[in-house]
Design goal:
406 residues, alpha+beta, two-stranded antiparallel sheet, 14 strands, 6-stranded mixed beta barrel
Length: 406
């Protein structure tokens, strides 16, 4: 077998220019497909991380039916019974309760419909890092009687820190909800829609406003490892009652996942084109090689070389060319992707505006996941094996006299 390997390696360098051109086509194909895959998967991971860390969390517990009909009456009790159940699951890092509803925000001159989110200031900050987004004023404290406003909302209502905001709405089971609150801080939300609508207040203050003492609309849960989300969900479903529902981030963001799958499919088409170019590049090299060496093959078989040995040598030549292209392609991809991993490509213009409106950072992120690289090697290897069927077929049908006279 060692002799076959030596012969195959020497044979591919008998025509250095042709071999180098073929390896270069594989190199650039692997480089481009790795770059595209890294950019896709890195951006998808960033989208998911943004969604999980800015709103949904890994898991949420809420009253069954709340997710489909987000009204204040679909709320649940948040007491020691529920917290003790959550505490039994060891992989949960922390959880935070929320009370979400809508109200009419009013000042002396302006009114606007807003989303009111009652939060636990400490644990909510662990999840969404609201405190670092404070543009003016300060963050909320426990049992704080004030509110935080999105910067666009504050601008519309012409409010600043220490001004008074009036909220009017409907509380639990049709009770009236009204109150006056001091603006403690102005928050710059990355998502323009939230920046125009969101009002934060301490959850106890929100419970008083909506007459919902001891009740919440959801409990957001974070897990220490994304791979443990499914097991943690199963444990929580076994602990909670039939009235509660446990949803993971995939269920809560099904639309985003569908968009990701659609985008991934279109990317796979582009990568498929690259792989076709690589495949035809290798195939054309093999076809030229077979045509040029036809007489050589005929002589070798005439002097007693078995056809299967010749086939093994030719297949090894194809494998060597494929491996050389793949290895150099991956070696070239790693430093390029590593650079962009730490220096994401910023998006400007309409693309950047669209990303901001969706609540995502306007940049293309990259990933260094090992699968991005070994998938290229696996796919090229499969194509190389398929190309190896051509010399097998050609040699098996080779006529000695016809080949020698060629």
């Amino acid at each position: 077998m060692v002799d076959y390997l030596k012969l195959a390696w020497r044979n591919i360098w008998r025509n250095k220019r042709r071999t180098l051109i073929t390896i270069a086509s594989i190199f650039f194909g692997v480089l481009l497909s790795s770059f595209m895959s890294s950019m896709q998967e890195g951006s998808y991971a960033q989208y998911i991380t943004t969604i999980v860390n800015s709103y949904s969390g890994h898991l949420q517990i809420h009253k069954r039916g709340y997710w489909d009909d987000k009204v204040i009456n679909n709320s649940m009790k948040f007491d020691g019974t529920l917290t003790s159940k959550i505490a039994k699951v060891k992989d949960i890092t922390f959880y935070t309760p929320r009370l979400e509803s809508y109200a009419l925000a009013s000042t002396d001159e302006f009114t606007k419909g807003v989303m009111v989110m009652g939060i636990d200031p400490e644990t909510e900050n662990d999840l969404t890092s609201i405190s670092i987004k404070i543009k003016e004023g300060r963050y909320l404290e426990d049992h704080d009687g004030g509110v935080l406003l999105g910067s666009a909302l504050a601008k519309f209502l012409k409010l600043s820190v220490n001004d008074t905001l009036v909220l009017l709405g409907q509380g639990y089971h049709g009770t009236s909800a009204a109150g006056k609150y001091t603006v403690k801080g102005i928050v710059k939300q990355p998502a323009p829609e939230l920046d125009r609508l969101l009002v934060y207040m301490d959850i106890h203050t929100a419970q008083d406003l909506f007459s919902m003492q001891g009740m919440v609309t959801s409990v957001v849960i974070m897990v220490n490892d994304n791979d443990k989300v499914a097991p943690v969900k199963d444990k929580l479903e076994g602990l909670t009652g039939s009235e509660e529902e446990v949803m993971d981030w995939k269920e809560m963001n099904s639309l985003l996942l569908k968009q990701i799958e659609s985008d991934r499919s279109s990317g796979n088409i582009m990568k498929g084109v690259l792989y076709m170019i690589i495949t035809f590049g290798i195939l054309s090299t093999i076809m030229m090689m077979m045509a040029e060496r036809k007489k050589e093959f005929g002589v070798l078989i005439a002097v007693g070389m078995k056809k299967y040995k010749l086939i093994i040598m030719l297949v090894l030549e194809i494998v060597f060319i494929g491996m050389a292209g793949v290895i150099t392609g991956i070696m070239g991809s790693i430093p390029l992707i590593y650079y962009y991993l730490h220096n994401p490509i910023p998006l400007t213009g309409q693309a950047g505006e669209m990303m901001l409106q969706m609540g995502f950072e306007p940049a293309m992120f990259f990933s260094m996941a090992p699968s991005i690289f070994y998938y290229q090697a696996l796919i090229i290897f499969v194509f190389t094996i398929l190309i190896g069927l051509y010399p097998v077929y050609n040699i098996s049908r080779l006529k000695i006299m016809s080949a020698i006279r060629n």
